[in-house]
Structure formats: structure tokens, C-alpha cells
Write a structure and sequence with these properties.
alpha/beta, Rossmann fold, 2 domains, eight-stranded mixed beta sheet, five-stranded parallel beta sheet, 14 helices, binds adenosine-5'-triphosphate, binds magnesium ion
Length: 380
């Protein structure tokens, strides 16, 4: 199983001696996982789409229908946002030029240390650029009880552990699951306590609940009927302010697609749609995916996370992928004992038991969302 920090590499190289050299260098370490070596430049984009590498290495002198420089340009223009490390020889010197899609250059011969270092630099650079802007993730499912609140809470804590200032919003305004989960007293302020006209930074600081796990939480109103007092416009305003204050925001949402829920989803970069191996959940998820498509949420925005991925109840991974129309992006295993106990104590399991499989799975999701690794987090 790759660790959250392992780097997935795809190589475009048509000189067997060079690819063998790189393979030898990589075999001596465990940080970089070589996905595939392609000698045909024309196949690289499709392979990248399927394999979701964190980095692509391209030989500048790649021959064939699509030559090295052309492939570099194509990767840059593909919108896949994958950093490219260009490999060259001393006779063909090349300068790093991120604008042209050249994130780093490696000149043969190089050591395994230089190779791995280059990948680490390129990814750190991406992460630094990504952290300048806020990532907003809404955890959603059209079905209740699939693990939205549990995943939203642990994902937020995992993002905070990566060093991002993180807010968690209870968008489940009627029932306010987070207040119960974290045992927050009912007199602690909520989204309702924000002024409706001009919300400001200082107002925000007054209403956020600082959880010991390192995330700031914007709670839902303490009583069911108070949810009605929050409008879609309030959500929009609150979200645009929070975006300026935090590097990552996770929103726990209810199962109903109300106007207010949609305002939360609209304000998000990623809608993490939680699926389980349960036929009604899958049915509702497909129904909602049609709504999402019709309002312009594409696959870059809607990501599928299979919760309790090891409790398939007879359904296969392939069947699920067929039903959804694509492979889920993430999987989180089941761990009844740990999850229920941690939830009962109001503790994130990613902190209570950081090495448990369920925690590593959530941390993998956080790694992708924070831009640490660009790949999907499903172990194929
Ligand atoms: N990966 C998991 N392994 C084991 N138990 C889990 C897992 N994920 C969630 N659970 C359990 O499933 C139950 C429902 O989880 P949770 O409350 O997070 O779901 P929800 O989607 O937020 O529900 P609701 O629709 O009521 O808001 C909880 O008891 C939780 O402990
Ligand atoms: Mg919930």
C-alpha cells in the first residue's frame, strides 16, 4: 500500500537504456512508485488520465508521432495539472520554465538522490502554490447515515495536520450533527449569530468553535426550527469570507438538496459524494449525479468516495464503477470499533489511531485534496 506521501510517476521514454537506468535508480527507494514507462508519446495523455500520476517525466528527445517538446506542451494544455520533469542530455541543455510546462529539468547522468529530490521539489512547489488559495470541500450524499459527518470531521482534522488552517462547517443546519458529535454546549454560537448584513472577519472569530483537534468549527443553530433563518444568500456571504480566512474548508451537508445545501455545494471546489455498497444509496447517487451534470458540476468537481469500501455486500467494485459511470476516486474502509468509539468520545479517529487503515485512507483523501499528491486515492 503506498504511503500518503508516495509519488506516483509516469515516464515517456523510448530509449530502453535510459528507462532501465531510471528503473534501477528507483528500485533502490520506496518514495516513488513507477506506474508505467510509455515509449509512444501519443499514449501519454490517456494513460495519465487513467493512472493519475503525481508527476510525468518526459524525454526531451522522445521520437515518434508526438515528440518530446510537443508532448510537454500537450500535457500543459490538457488541464490535468500534472507537473512535468523533462529529461535531457548535456548536448541539449534546457532551462526550467513552468509557463511552458517544464516544471523541472534533469540532465543525464543523474543519481537516484537527484531524481527523488527533483520530484519532491516539484510537488512541494505545487503545494505551496495551491496553499495560497483556499480549498473548499463539501461532503455530500443524497442518502442519510453513510458517514458524511464522520468523514467531514476526520478529513478536516487530517487537513489541519498537514499544516493548513482549516475550518469545518456544519451545513446540516437542521440537525447540526457536529454539535452532538463534539459535545459542544447548546449556548455556543452558530452560523445564526453572524450579522446578516455585513459579515466581517472579527464576527467570524467570535462564532467559530476551536476544537482541540486543530480545526475551527462553524456550528449549525442549536435548534431544528432555527435552520429556516439561514438563507442561501447568508451561506454565500459566509463562505466568501471564510475562503479568505482559511486555507481549507470542509462542509458537512445534509442529505436533502435544498437551496441552502446547493449554496454550500456551489461555494465548494470539490463535492465529495459519499457512496456505500447499498443499492438505494447508489440509486440516489446516480439520480443526483444527473442533477449535478445539469447544473454544470463536472467530474473535476464531483468526486466519489466509497465509505466502508470493504463491506461490499456482494456488489463488486466494477459493478459500482459501472453504475456510477466511472471509478470512484477514494475509498475508506470500515472500522466499526474504532469509528464508533472515536465518535462517541468526540475524537477524530485520525488522531486517536493514526495508523489504522481507516485513518490512512482519510489521510490519503486529505493528501489529494490539499494538493500534496495529485493522484486518486483508490488502491487499484
Ligand atoms: N468507515 C466507517 N467504519 C465504520 N463505521 C462508520 C464508518 N463511517 C461511518 N460509520 C458509522 O456510521 C454511522 C453514520 O455515520 P455519520 O453520522 O457520519 O453519517 P451521516 O452520513 O453524517 O449521517 P446523517 O445522514 O444522519 O447526517 C455512525 O455510527 C458512524 O460511526
Ligand atoms: Mg451527518
Amino acid at each position: 500500500m503506498p504511503s500518503p506521501s508516495s509519488i506516483r510517476l509516469l515516464i515517456a521514454e523510448d530509449v530502453p537504456q535510459v528507462s532501465q537506468h531510471v528503473r534501477n535508480l528507483l528500485s533502490a527507494q520506496s518514495q516513488v512508485k513507477l506506474l508505467e514507462v510509455l515509449s509512444d508519446g501519443a499514449k501519454v495523455l490517456e494513460a495519465a488520465r487513467q493512472l493519475r500520476p503525481d508527476v510525468v517525466m518526459v524525454d526531451l528527445l522522445l521520437q515518434g508521432k508526438i515528440k518530446g517538446p510537443q508532448l510537454i506542451e500537450k500535457i500543459r494544455d490538457s488541464g490535468q495539472d500534472i507537473p512535468v520533469v523533462v529529461l535531457t542530455v548535456p548536448q541539449h541543455p534546457l532551462a526550467r520554465d513552468p509557463e511552458r510546462g517544464i516544471d523541472a529539468v534533469l540532465t543525464l547522468p543523474f543519481s537516484g538522490f537527484e531524481l527523488v529530490n527533483t520530484f519532491n521539489h516539484v510537488l512541494a512547489d505545487r503545494q505551496a502554490r495551491a496553499s495560497g488559495s483556499c480549498r473548499v470541500v463539501a461532503v455530500f450524499s443524497p442518502k442519510g447515515g453513510v458517514g458524511k459527518t464522520t468523514i467531514a470531521f476526520n478529513l478536516a482534522v487530517a487537513l489541519a495536520q498537514f499544516g493548513l488552517t482549516t475550518a469545518l462547517i456544519d451545513g446540516s443546519l437542521q440537525y447540526g450533527d457536529l454539535r452532538a458529535l463534539l459535545k459542544v454546549p447548546s449556548d455556543v454560537p452558530s452560523i445564526l449569530d453572524l450579522p446578516t448584513d455585513r459579515v466581517q472577519e472579527s464576527d467570524m472569530r467570535d462564532v467559530m468553535w476551536r476544537d482541540p483537534a486543530g480545526v475551527d468549527i462553524l456550528l449549525a443553530p442549536p435548534r431544528v426550527e432555527m435552520a429556516e433563518m439561514i438563507s442561501a444568500r447568508d451561506v454565500e456571504k459566509t463562505m466568501s469570507l471564510l475562503r479568505r480566512l482559511y486555507q481549507a474548508i470542509v462542509i458537512d451537508t445534509p442529505a436533502s438538496l435544498s437551496e441552502v445545501t446547493l449554496a454550500f455545494l456551489d461555494a465548494s471546489d470539490v463535492v465529495l459524494s459519499i457512496v456505500t455498497y447499498d443499492s438505494t444509496t447508489i440509486h440516489n447517487t446516480i439520480a443526483v449525479s444527473e442533477v449535478f451534470a445539469s447544473i454544470g458540476y463536472g467530474p473535476d468537481k464531483v468526486h466519489y468516495l466509497v465509505n466502508r469500501a470493504d463491506s461490499s455486500g456482494g456488489l463488486g467494485r466494477d459493478e459500482l464503477a459501472r453504475a456510477l459511470g466511472r471509478k470512484p476516486d477514494f475509498e475508506v474502509v470500515s472500522d466499526g470499533r474504532l469509528v464508533v468509539q472515536a465518535n462517541n468520545e468526540g475524537m477524530p479517529f485520525v488522531v486517536a489511531s493514526p495508523d489504522a487503515a481507516v485513518s490512512l485512507d482519510v489521510k490519503r483523501v486529505a493528501a489529494v485534496i490539499s494538493g500534496r499528491t495529485a493522484g486518486a486515492a483508490v488502491r487499484h
